[in-house]
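task queued by scheduler; priority normal; single chain, no ligands, no partner chains; default sampling; output format set to structure tokens
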Amino acid sequence: MPLPAVEIQRRHSIALFAILGIVLVIGSYLFVTLLAASCVYLPYIIFSRAQSEHGWDVLILLFGIVIAVAMLWSLIPRRQEFTAPGLLLDRSSHPRLFAEIDSIAAILNEAVPGDIYLIGEANAFVGDRGGIMGFGSRRIMGLGLPLLSTMTVSQIRAVLAHEFAHYYGGDTSVGPWVYRAKASFVRVFENVGSVRPLARVAVLGAMYMFVTMLLKWYFVGFLRISNFVSRRQEYRADELACLVAGRQNLIDGLQAMHRAAAVWPTYWKQEVQPVLGMGNLVALGDGLIRFMAVPHVSEAIGKSLEARLRDEKTKPYDTHPPLRDRIAAAQKLPVGSALQDSELATCLLENMGNTEILFVENRVDNIRHGSLKYVPWDQVALRVTIPGWEQFVSEYSEFLRGATAVSLPDQVPKLREIGSRIRDPKGMLLSPDQRTARAGGLFAAALALAMTRSGWELQVGPGMFRLSSGSHEFNPFLTVNQLMTNKLSREAWTARCQELGLSQLVLLPSSPIEHMPKPSPQAELFG
């Protein structure tokens, strides 16, 4: 359903901020040019009017020319190669998402971005690529999979409206100029810094210090003013988002964005990467929602949001206002009558399983196209976790021979030496302490396998790991860590083994490790 038309009130202050940004950029180039000219002209005046016996005037002139050339060379624009930020989405493959984008573009009378990417961040952005200094460029947009996975359609509309408001306000037109001016300033500092060894002579050192001090003062002012303009643009984009998609939807979307951003890196590292390492992929969006619902994770997210709303303050170099201030500004705006859709925004992506596979193949460099198998979360224990343990234990079985559950305390003193003989994961260089921890993980995995062979049930899910038998629950990895850090005594562990019936449990069976039963044909359909 098309979104209702809205009446947008023009803000002359926004045009003034845009003009301020352009003036700031032009002023930056003029400042560096004039400073470079001064580095040559002033020493030349000294050289032409007074001849030093020691030739200091010539030396200063030559040094001024070197600094001037370094600064002017830094101002020349460099060609920037564009790297796709994520998976390029196709209109024909995701008609619902593009329909939402078209609808918001029509309200603000803006052109739809030529390229829309699914990115691996809890964020969204718009920009221009190609062209020269913004001219002849092509519009692009990035939408984070974590946002689509955790927000409602109404909240995503607010996010999209906010991003289109940057087009509407001309922010993306001024942005390339400001960005390139910043990049030029960075090059100025780098190139001027490269001539510092020549400034060892006292008089040249004084000149060098004076030039770099002026550059620093101007650059600090440039950053403060440009970021102030950026924060005002964010407020205006929020205002238009409230007008187009509804005030509460924007407020809820801002908070949802913080929650997703707070948890996504941990979720990816702890829950997704281990599965990818086995050539499998779980439902990313569904898993993220379930991970965020785990009690201790949910509590941590809530505390993080509460602290941010309470403590975050505006800083001169921030490009965005504090979340608290953005919410407060939005709450002063009219409520509006936007359409409400509480369905998860992942409904806007067709064939979610295939889309997530393409997304991961695009995001992770060493994954070959078509090699991933889709695994439902309730099959992770059987098809990913246990086979991973079996492979680890089989490779280093020599260290496990003769070990039983109750003898684990006897293995702790040997872990450092064992860890030194275990190869590092591919692409990683572990410290001695990390290798020791891996050796501990080897014994924990062997204990977990032995328990599953003796009838214990393993359940693995987002933020959940549970080995259970009747009313007993047990975590071998936590227990081995407690033994390694002396938080669990030998006597307490022996008593615990007797309580759980593990006293005679052998970590490595005399015969080769037996694999768990294969998944049922119904489960294979998810592969």
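post-processing summary
- Strands lie at 87-88, 115-119, 124-129, 138-144, 280-281, 373-374, 457-461, 464-469, 472-474.
- The chain has three domains: 12-79+178-232, 87-169+238-363, 376-524.
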